[in-house]
Amino acid sequence: MSDFKLPFRAGGFAGAFGVGKTLACLDLLVMAKAGGVPKEEMLVLDTHGSVEPYLMLDQYKDLFEHRVCMNSDAILKTLDEIKAQKRKRSIMVIDTVEMLQDKLIQDLWDDPSLSAAYKEKATSFMWGRVKKNLLNRVLDIMVNSASVLLFTIHTRKEFVGGKPTGREEGKFLAPIMQLCQFVAILTRRPNTKLPDASFFPPMGKSQFPGLPPAIQQFTWDKFLQYMGKTPADWSALKKEETVSSGLELLEKISRLAEGGEEVAE
Which domain does 159 fall in, by range? Predict the structure, then answer.
């Protein structure tokens, strides 16, 4: 394996269709290539066909290994084949991980050994099994197949205390959220080339205390700069480090999510 290292083991990007999730992941691979990582150490699993258009562009052509698995059976088969190679990649991207999550849910609910009555009565137990299976599967990938994992997923409307917040949240199941050291919610303003990224709970997540609530005009250079060289000063955030709707509202929503004060209408 190359000497190129990233300061995280797993991360996630969530956002609406076309916001830039795939582009963010592929641009990291461009940086990795510049850092000496060869093609055979970078693998992208494409479950939605989002990656294929990029392969026509010179900066992404022949940059990484590309596996298409655009149905629920193919994703598990592909992961098993990768593990059987007994070769750990530097970086693996699963774009999107929705297919894997949905496949594990489907397999459990279709288990012929479980009656419909049991599944109806033991819904919470069933979901516990889904989460355990997903956690074990992702940990297996991290141990045997990839040093760094990047996931993408779509978003849905966020609810806190049963009320819509007007924001979006990633559809990652809990095990992936727990394993990721950051989850960025990407949004893109009209007529802008690059997305904005929010990391502050409950919109996103970060185990890096230096990350600001938002990195507007997201780039990997800026992201890695925040993580190590110039961490955000939370007592005096720069304009580009704050979410456009205001840090105060996010703090109130976070407290509500933790069972604290109500959010004013």
Answer: 10-257
Is the residue at 150 inside a domain? yes
The answer as to whether 3 is a domain residue is no
Q: What are the backbone angles phi and psi of residue 162, rounded to the nearest 5°? A: 80, 5
Say how far apart CA 139 and CA 147 lie, in whole Å: 11
pLDDT 10s digits, 176-228: 999 999 999 999 988 888 899 988 766 678 888 778 888 888 999 999 988 87
Residue pLDDT, tens place only, 86-130: 999 999 999 999 999 999 888 888 888 888 887 778 788 888 888
Q: Model pTM?
A: 0.86
Q: 139 in helix, strand or coil?
A: helix
107 phi-psi bin (left φ>0, alpha ψ -120 to 50, beta other): alpha
The encoded tokens of residue 236 equal: 């005096």
Residue 238, Cβ density class (10 Å: 0-12 exposed, 13-18 middle, ≥19 buried): exposed
Strands 155-160 and 163-170: what pairing?
Answer: antiparallel
From residue 243, give the alpha-carbon distance in Å to each of 11, 52, 163, 196, 215: 20, 32, 21, 9, 8
Res 243 pLDDT > 90: no
Q: Does a structural domain hold residue 202?
A: yes
